[in-house]
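From the pipeline queue, job 12 of 40. The input is one protein chain; the requested action is below.

Action: predict structure.
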Amino acid sequence: MMRAVLFDLDGVLIETEWETFVFYQQYLKVHYGIDLPNSAFQFKAGRKSADFWRDVLTPDQRKAVDTEKLTEFKREQFNVHPDTYVQKVSGGKELIEALRAHGWKTGLTTQNEERMMQTVLAWLDISLLFDVKLSLKDIEKKKPDPQIYLKAAGILGVNLSQCIVIEDSEDGVNSAKAAGMYCLAIRHSYTPASHLHEADTEVKALQEISPEFIEKIIRQ
């Protein structure tokens, strides 16, 4: 029977939450003289940009700063220069290779734009290690809707119950569970305790996961 492990990208194979916050922090200081304290990061992790801006900027600051353009500028910089702005999660490539060696199909299911996905995968040297790669252009409904996971399983020809999803966000976990899949969640230090409660299993880091670990937890 075919089985698959489906990976989210941000927060699983790369880190962008803190890096995005620092980018905004530095840009606002240089261009607008706005000091964004490190404590404001609590409003960034795992949240939509519009909600973040609403919570960290005053009404007058939101009038002065075109947050939509700034968000797009950040996205462009991260697309073009992942080596400058994005952090690799150690052990990602090795885990994917090990899973494939143990007979697992592998897939990438990200809501990033296609260009960033391709740029980052090339930078990580893992583009050829996935049997399916889905990005924002491949879906009409974002997570927590299960569409991206249902589509990945369909392309792979793998039964939903034989898919393991590795996620790190509330929407991602809920998307995987809505698709009827087993969800293994990575809990970061900044992740609110309530966000991952629907996950089947939690770990603190990607490095805890191995083919043997996955085999063990799905037998429990």
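Job complete. Strands lie at 4-7, 14-15, 87-88, 105-109, 132-134, 163-167, 182-186, 201-203.
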